[in-house]
Design goal:
The protein has about 625 residues and is of the alpha/beta class. The chain has 26 helices and 21 strands. β12, α12 and β13 form a beta-alpha-beta unit. It is globular and about 90 Å long. The model has no long low-confidence stretch (mean pLDDT about 90).
Length: about 625
């Protein structure tokens, strides 16, 4: 039998595991239910993918993130490993074919959204599968004490009843102690084995700056800290405005949010990963599943809603182990703004019922219908038609999603897909009887091969049109005609937000809402908001220790590199601070210098103190940046 390291080398081309990874892998191979807590960028996927390759049968991977599903499926296929994904937005026939292939076709990894676990189709098929491992990603979603609770995750315990002898690995980047225990209870762990990597990041300097001019401070930071950066903001409109501002200041920037087309999102992401664009200004739709090791700074221009989400987003900096920064820029108004936003995100029960009834009317759905069906969804059109406030409606949709009634996917993309419904013999007879379809069918087989008979295959109408020397419009018409004749199942490309009815359409007045849980969640969300506000206003405790304390990690080792620790060093050693100040002013006395040249001239032992002294001198008005971003003494 291959060893874990040999599997790692063969498929992932790494010679050794990162700390803790191999211990987790061996625990899973032994058949032990395992909870793995690894920070963002800590290599969670390897912890279930390597043991799954060593265990007999398919690995069921449950995750709520469709974009992450697709990314991991594509990565596994590039490694020569057969993987598929089932998620909301897929037709029943697509799911039917994939589940058959999971039983008979040698699929090694089957990714699922948690909503799929409750469908009768899946339940019946999983009984016929040889399952080797169940991997639960984003496992904090199963706990009502987590920040992103999702009731459909509770269905995983039903899966354990159906296939009781299959081990489970649960993975998350951030979970408090109470969430950890809840995860293991909800997943019916037979034994409780936890592997936990410290939340401390030795190379990540946490900084909070209170400022009345956040845009100016943002530009200053990006001038001081070279390299790739992410700037998080709350609204789509702000992403574009900030990216425009940065480009005008000579800093290469692009923007990203869920409202862009799939092609736009992909292009911008690829350009940023390839360092063609330095700064990505984005909403929290950006970053999940992206493996870019050289991000030097993550900046939040708006306060995050909780420390869990902030730690994950900040943790996208410095995955290469080199020095990096996580910065929050805020002003007093931001605190009242986020408190108002969080309260807006907690709609009343009446609002939930009203929104749900409007959806039923919008799609003209009868009670009991539409279970598992997905629809194109235009939030503005919907809100306008029913005289609803768009933001209130959006928040109601997210709460209905949290209650397991709907799934609202803002950035959905599905390429054109094709599947032959007929076998080879029946298809040949059809071609003989219908000569006008003979050449298109032959072309499809030449381009995409026999896989069309076994699974849904991604196709390109433009490539087919070129091969047939006809227009793309004609190709679409031909495929739609073949679809009507039930020769093929053709699903054209979709790139619009999708709304899926997870449960059959309910009576709006009797929605199955857990009122007590909704109120508990409200209080929990407000307490998490209080924690991030406290973190931002803190000026006395090491920020890394605050984060560790929040996640119930006991430590008394200060990080020495956050803004609070550096401020303490200045207070404890005023002589060193004063000396640094004098040396900086002396170095700038004869000429203006870029910050890198100034640092080389001063040659500080304590680089963090140097950066902080420069900031203080700028704030005091003793020095400033000129139009070429050189530091100069103010006369």
């Amino acid at each position: 039998m291959d060893s874990p390291v040999s599997i790692l080398k063969q498929y992932w081309h790494y010679n050794e595991f990162r700390p803790l990874q191999e211990d987790i892998v061996r625990s899973v191979i032994e058949g032990t239910d395992t909870l793995a807590l690894l920070p963002t960028g800590g290599g969670k996927s390897v912890c279930f993918q390597v043991p799954a390759m060593m265990l007999d049968g398919v690995c069921l991977v449950i995750t709520p993130l469709i974009a992450l599903m697709r990314d991991q499926v594509d990565q596994l296929r590039r490694r020569g490993i057969l993987a598929e994904a089932i998620h909301t937005g897929m037709s029943r026939s697509q799911i039917d074919v994939l589940l058959n292939n999971a039983i008979y076709g040698g699929i090694k990894f089957l990714y699922l959204s948690p909503e799929r676990l409750r469908t009768e189709l899946f339940i019946e098929r999983v009984k016929q599968m040889k399952v080797g491992l169940i991997a639960v990603d984003e496992a904090h979603c199963i706990s009502q004490w987590g920040y992103d609770f999702r009731p459909p995750y509770l269905q995983i315990s039903l899966l354990r009843e159906i296939i009781p002898n299959v081990p489970v690995i649960a993975l998350t980047a951030s979970a408090t102690e109470v969430v950890q225990q809840d995860i293991m209870d909800k997943l019916a762990f037979r034994s409780k084995r936890i592997f936990r990597k410290s939340f401390a990041r030795d190379n990540l300097s946490f900084v909070v700056r209170k400022t009345e001019n956040k845009e100016k401070k943002l530009v200053e930071i990006l001038q001081k800290v070279k390299g790739s950066a992410i700037v998080y903001v709350r609204s789509r409109k702000t992403t574009q405005a900030v990216a425009t501002l940065l480009n005008r200041r000579g800093i290469s920037a692009s923007y990203y949010h869920a409202g862009l087309t799939f092609e736009q999102r992909t292009t911008r992401q690829d350009e940023w990963i390839g360092n063609k664009t330095r700064v990505m200004v984005a909403t929290n739709a950006f970053g999940m599943g992206i493996d870019k090791p050289d991000v030097r700074v993550v900046i939040h221009l708006d306060l995050p809603e909780n420390l869990e989400a902030y730690y994950q987003e900040a943790g996208r900096a410095g995955r290469d182990g080199l020095r990096c920064f996580a910065v929050i820029l805020y002003q007093d108004a931001d605190i009242s703004n986020i408190e108002a936003k969080v309260n807006q995100s907690l709609p009343s029960i009446d609002t939930l019922k009203k929104t749900y009834q409007a959806l039923a009317n919008y799609y003209q759905l009868a009670t009991g219908s539409a279970a598992g069906e997905s629809f194109n969804f235009d939030l503005n059109d919907f809100a306008e038609r029913f005289k609803l406030h768009p933001l209130e409606t959006y928040n109601a949709l997210k709460k209905l999603e949290e209650e397991g009634l709907l799934q609202f996917n803002e950035s959905f993309y599905s390429p054109s897909l094709l599947f032959f419904n007929l076998d080879h013999h029946a298809l040949y007879q059809f071609q003989v009887a219908n000569a006008k379809f003979d050449e298109p069918i032959k072309t499809l087989l030449r381009l995409y091969g026999g896989e069309l008979f076994a699974a849904f295959v991604k196709i390109s109408e433009s490539v087919i049109a070129k091969a047939l020397t006809v227009s793309e419009k004609e190709v679409v018409a031909t495929l739609q005609h073949l679809n009507q004749l039930k020769v093929v199942t053709y699903q054209p490309v979709r790139d619009t937000p999708q709304l899926t009815f997870v449960l059959p359409r309910q009576d709006a007045e009797n929605l199955p809402l857990d009122i007590k849980r909704i109120e508990t969640r409200k209080q929990l969300i407000l307490s998490k908001l209080a924690a991030i506000v406290s973190y931002s206003q803190n000026t006395h405790q090491c920020r890394m220790l605050m984060i560790q304390d929040y996640f119930n990690e006991v430590s008394d080792r200060e990080c020495k590199i956050c803004d609070v620790c550096i401020a303490k060093r200045k207070q404890d050693n005023p002589a060193q601070y004063a000396l640094m100040k004098d040396r900086i002013i002396q170095s700038l006395a004869s000429e203006a210098l870029p910050v890198e040249s100034l640092q080389a001239a001063v040659n500080p032992r304590d680089e963090e103190l140097f950066v902080d002294v420069v900031r203080d001198l700028v704030d005091e008005g003793l020095i400033s940046y000129d139009s070429s971003w050189r530091l100069k003494i103010n006369q």
